[in-house]
Amino acid sequence: MRARKDVCCSGRRMRHLSSASSVVETDTNLFVKVKRNHDIGEEIYNRVRHFPTAMEEPNQEPYGYCDTHKWTKRSIFWELPYWKDLLIRHNLDVMHTEKNVFDNIFNTVMDLKGKTKDGLAARKDMTIWCDRPELSVDLEYQGKEVPKVVYQVTEPQKAAILKWLASQKFPDGYCSNLSRCVDMNKLTTTTSMKTHDAHVIMQRLLPIALKEMLPEHVWSCITEISLLFQSICSSVLDAASLRRLQESVPILMCNLEKIMPPSFFDTMEHLIIHLPYEALTAGPVFYRWMYRF
């Protein structure tokens, strides 16, 4: 992103769509044909086998970088004879993925100062890259405030949500005292909110808190993400449900791209697409995530 000076992973979801959803309207009003193809190890290996490793050519980028691919080097793991045959080569930690996705959603929807993925720089990037007039700003504008948009709550709504979160009571050991995680004077969250608190809010409280605060299409996307993490984190997994999730989550993320600015989509939002496949392949996440329980 030119104005924010960071990396955006917007648009990566389309290649995971099923053949029934092969034509997609992007936020630049282009229709793009994509095919669903979960790359297997042999295919990836054939694409990276000629790339140098970081030890061989530490400062040279492979041919075609930024044009046909984004690989900078070949991982040394491909030297292992069994690496290309593994069904899961990089186990995604659901704990950190969920925490980062929650932070991006909550901070952006609540428009928390210094934490939101939205802002003047993000709006300028939106003006440059996307055809979304409702999010555009004058590129010469030098102020600090930008107009509220459809995915943000107002200041009174923000105060009501934080007050409601602070008032929640749970059994001992279920999560932290959420009243300590909220600063009502500054209308923001504090560093007392830990990863497991985000886990509870994301799966149990966020859809309820935002139900009357956001338009239906925005709330439904956030709620579907919440339900996705609920399904993935269940102690008993239903294979049929996970297969349906695997097919529907790319559509969900494409719908979210129609709402949020490109700056919202970092690597973590892209990783959501792979979670149903990993749950189908490797089983319940509580055997693989980084919680101690």
Automatic annotation (TrEMBL):
Superkingdom of origin: Eukaryota
Record domain DUF4218: where: 232-292
InterPro entries recorded: DUF4218
Name of this protein: DUF4218 domain-containing protein
Organism, scientific name: Cuscuta epithymum
